[in-house]
Each structure stands twice: as structure tokens, then as C-alpha cells.
Amino acid sequence: MYGIAVHGGAGTLPRAELDPDLEKRYRAGLAAALEAGGAILEGGGASLDAVERAVVVLEDDPLFNAGRGAVFTFEGRHELDAAIMDGSTLEAGAVCGVRHVANPVALARAVMAHGEYVLLSGAGAEEFALGRGFSLVPNEHFRTEERWRQLEKLRRGDPRVSPLTISHVGTVGAVACDRHGRLAAATSTGGMTGKRYNRIGDSPLIGAGTYADDRSCAVSATGHGEMFIRAAVAHDVCARVRFGGRSLEQAVREVVFEELAALRAQGGLIAVDRAGRIVMEFNSEGMFRASLTAAGEPQIAIYRAP
Questions:
Q1: Helix axes 104-114, 47-59, angle to 10 degrees
Q2: SS3 content of the chain, % helix, strand, coil (to 5)
Q3: Considering only CA atoms, which of 105, 115, 127 is closest in space to residue 36?
Q4: Which CATH number covers residue 238?
């Protein structure tokens, strides 16, 4: 028994506007991450290793708003955030505002394993990275022309473009339950297109965009970060399972369709419990998502079934 789910962000890209070739590439990216994480679980490996590996694959894929392919700040640079959490120990690590680390989720794992803190930011996080043997990369490593075009449209005041319509799609995450029933979650993002003042969203905040607890479930979220922070979305789902007696599906649906809806927040999340049950839910136009269990074939989807 095991289960793993990954997401590549939730957003408002209409089904009719998604080019078929681009859709194939997105699906291939999700499949690659799912396969990488699933292989670890199939071999009896730990959920923590599986979510880290799956997210690294997505960070390396320029289609997604994490790692290479991250969106630009208003000033034209990249500032990356990531978090990872072990549900069996409640240990967690996170980084935010890093500019020169190719795989922020790997750095978050190092913070969890080797540091005395949970969350490191900016230059301090990169100083820690150097001390742990990470090689830094130029900020240009994360650039893609599509992300630059998005920033230019935003700067011009294009009415069809806003940070909330182009940023959610691409934030990545993974949740997993291994053969021992251990849970883990990880999330990574470039944040919001055109963000200013070193803005930080929900992804690296434990309890907001990322949370895992073997007594309940593991969650990775994607959406309007400010609202997900206010609702403590990831922890809320876990608390409803642990203390409220909800099933995983009930807890996820209540948070996505009641709590987030009350805040007029769009987005979604993926979650898994110790039985390997997976729920992937969203209140936006779509969510790039995929899942795999020991008993079934990979499931990959973007929009709801017609």
C-alpha cells in the first residue's frame, strides 16, 4: 500500500485556451514527477524522499512556476520559496526569497535535516546552502521567455493579465504515503508574477500551503497565497481529519468549497492519508494534478471531467 499525488498549480486558464501540444507537455511533466516519486515508494522507500524527488522533477521543468520556469518579480528577478514536512516526526524545513538555488525543495530538506530553524530567507538561506555544499546558480538560470512575456504584459497594464490569473498555474507540490504509513508533503513556487517588497505566499509557510501529520493527512496547496495564509488551509484540513472526525474527502471539500469560497479565494490542494487515500480538489477553472497508488494506474488531469 502506498499513494502519491502531485500538482502543478491551480488557476483560471480556460479549457479552450490550452493549446493541445502544450497540454501534452504539461501532462508529460506531471507524469515524470509521478513516476519519479512513485518509483521510490514502489521500492519501499520513504514518503519524504518521494515528495522531494517528485518536486525536484517539477522544479527542473520550465513549464512550471517553480525552480527553472519561475515567474518574475516586478523588478525582473526570481525569488523562490519551498517547504517540506515529515508527518511521522512533524519536522519541517522551508526557505523563501532565495535567488540562486536550483532546487529550493532540496534546500528546504537540508534546513529540516541539518539546521536548528524551520524557515530561512534570502541571503541567509543561501549562506546556509553554501555551508551544506550546495552550488549556487545565476538568477538567469530560472528565466524563460514565456515568464518574461507575462511580466511585460503585466507592466503594460494588459487588462487580460493579472498576478492572480497567471501565477497559480505552475506552483508545484507533492504528498505521499509510503508502505509504512508515513506521510510527507512538499511545495515549491516562484510566487506571484510582478510581486514586490519580497512578498512571501503560502507555499513555504508550514500550516498554510504545506503540512503533514501521520495522525491525519498530508497536504500541499496552490492558489491565492494571501487567502491560504489567512485560512491556514493545509493545517485546517489536517485538523478536521484529526479532531473533527471528518473523512479526508469531507475535510478537503469543506475547506476548498466553504472556507476558501467565503474568502473568495481560488485554488486547490492535494491530500493523502495513512490508508493511501488521495483527494485532489479545486474551486478554480482547473488544477494540474496526478496521482498513483500501488493498486492502480496513474491518473493525470487538468480540468474536471465533462
A1: 150
A2: 35, 25, 40
A3: 105
A4: 3.60.20.30
The residue annotated as part of the active site, out of 12, 144, 171, 210, is 171
Count how many domains the chain has.
1
Residue 153 domain-assigned (yes or no): yes
In a domain, 303, yes or no: no
Domain that holds residue 61: 3-294
In a domain, 300, yes or no: no
- pLDDT tens, the chain, 306 aa long: 899 999 999 986 777 778 899 999 999 999 999 999 999 999 999 999 999 999 999 999 999 999 999 999 999 999 999 999 999 999 999 999 999 999 999 999 999 999 899 999 999 999 999 999 999 999 999 999 999 999 999 998 866 555 555 554 679 999 999 999 999 999 999 999 999 999 999 999 999 999 999 999 999 999 999 999 999 999 999 999 999 999 999 999 999 999 999 999 999 999 999 999 999 999 999 999 999 999 889 999 999 987
Please report where in the chains the cell 498555474 appears, as a residue.
169
As a three-state string, the secondary structure of 225-253 is: HHHHHHHCHHHHHHHHHHCCCCCHHHHHH
Q: Write down the pTM of the prediction.
A: 0.95
The answer to the question of residue 150 being in a domain is yes
Asked about 189 being catalytic, the answer comes back as: no
